[in-house]
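$ ./design --mode recover --in tokens.txt
reading tokens...
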């Protein structure tokens, strides 16, 4: 039987049919790795904010971007979705993708959740950094908690076109152009949209160079509900294309809903773990949560631009165990439910979970899943016996909580 309330950071919230946050996930709230001195995520945050401080200054030469890195990760459905024009039936709202505290509150799934409130507060240029929470697969580059930096920049007509009073940023156009309405929003003039696109892209190309040096990069068209047009920036680093960030021209209703009628804006969001893993060659995302000095002391530098290459403390052996079961016939089952259960029972000893077999029995129509779970301790050798004990706990928990039938 579950307690009636959910506890997150010493606060109690009432549980309802949306609640799916686990106490293990809740225990990560408040760790604030991005604020921890000498933590690699803190170094990456500083490197990105410095780039904006240096490149965007007022006439008096002070930085114009302000930094918000202490916003609560507990947000409303309105903040995370509605205020960003995310449709009511959009997949990103699914219980299988987010950690809901209850039907009104969740752990933010992206830093963009704070965009509207900071616009409403009257800010024109700002950066937001923090921990974000998503239910996802389990492997060496995915963890249900990670960190993002988001930015917003707004521009007025006079700032965009200081020497030409005939150019405007708004028009009453329709959205149909040769690119099927994707090229710009109907309310923007082509000149303003193109100029914003240019400033956005050159800013982010500069950021990529600031972080990675002289790298090859490419722009990929994409879609977000809160920007149009939207792009992803990929950089070629360590012999691989790395999806670095998402960005775009802010959808105008987000601004008007915050009482802004005379500005056009661009925004982007970048994941900090990805950058740090690449820059410092950190092989496993679980290491960021390590309290082991063998990890942390490698980043104790007073020069945040110093090139650091992480040296593995040592590679301890993996233990691999498979688990097969029939899915429940009268209850819902999503793989993410199983991944959370594995996280809760196995903690950070679990390195990877792979669905290696998925079939429907031709006679009784029952579905069977087989998951391969890889266990590895980050600081010592895990014995097959220890891994076996955890594996059995996972099997039993899956049986009693997810109503699966084990195949032994
Ligand atoms: N919120 C997006 C994500 O999490 C990133 C993004 C931010 C895209 C701002 C466009 C503008 O992937």
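writing sequence...
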């Amino acid at each position: 039987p579950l307690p009636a309330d959910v506890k997150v950071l010493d606060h109690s919230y009432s549980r309802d049919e949306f609640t799916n946050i686990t106490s293990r996930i809740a225990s990560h709230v408040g760790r604030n790795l991005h604020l921890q001195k000498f933590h690699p995520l803190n170094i990456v945050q500083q490197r990105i904010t410095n780039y904006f401080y240096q490149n965007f200054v007022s006439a008096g030469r002070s930085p114009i971007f302000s930094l918000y890195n202490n916003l609560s990760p507990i947000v409303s459905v309105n903040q995370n979705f509605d205020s960003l024009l995310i449709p009511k039936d959009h997949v990103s709202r699914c219980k299988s993708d987010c950690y809901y505290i209850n039907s009104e509150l969740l752990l933010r799934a992206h830093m963009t959740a704070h965009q509207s409130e900071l616009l409403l507060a009257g800010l024109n240029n700002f950066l937001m950094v923090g921990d974000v929470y998503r239910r996802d697969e389990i492997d060496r580059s995915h963890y249900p908690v990670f960190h993002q930096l988001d930015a917003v920049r707004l521009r007025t007509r006079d700032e965009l076109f200081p020497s030409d009073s005939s150019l405007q940023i708004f028009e009453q156009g329709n959205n149909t152009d040769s690119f099927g309405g994707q090229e710009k929003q109907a309310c923007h003039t082509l000149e303003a949209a193109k100029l914003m696109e240019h400033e956005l892209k050159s800013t982010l190309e500069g950021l990529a160079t600031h972080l990675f040096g002289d790298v090859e990069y490419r722009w990929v068209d994409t879609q977000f509900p809160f920007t149009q047009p939207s792009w992803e920036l990929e950089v070629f680093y360590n012999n691989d294309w790395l999806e670095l960030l998402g960005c775009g021209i802010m959808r105008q209703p987000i601004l008007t809903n915050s009482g802004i009628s005379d500005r056009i804006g661009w925004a982007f969001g970048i994941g900090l773990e990805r950058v740090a893993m690449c820059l410092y060659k950190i092989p496993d995302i679980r290491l960021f949560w390590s309290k082991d000095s063998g990890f942390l002391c490698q980043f104790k530098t007073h020069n945040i631009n110093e090139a650091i290459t992480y040296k593995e403390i040592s590679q301890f052996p993996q233990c691999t165990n498979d688990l097969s079961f029939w899915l429940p016939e009268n209850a819902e089952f999503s793989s993410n439910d199983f991944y959370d259960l594995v996280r809760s029972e196995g903690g950070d000893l679990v390195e990877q979970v792979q669905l290696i077999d998925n079939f429907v029995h031709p006679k009784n129509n029952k579905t069977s899943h087989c998951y391969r779970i890889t266990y590895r301790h980050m600081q010592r050798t895990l014995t097959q016996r220890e891994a076996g004990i955890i594996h059995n706990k996972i099997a039993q928990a899956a049986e009693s909580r997810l109503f699966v039938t084990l195949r032994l």
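exit 0
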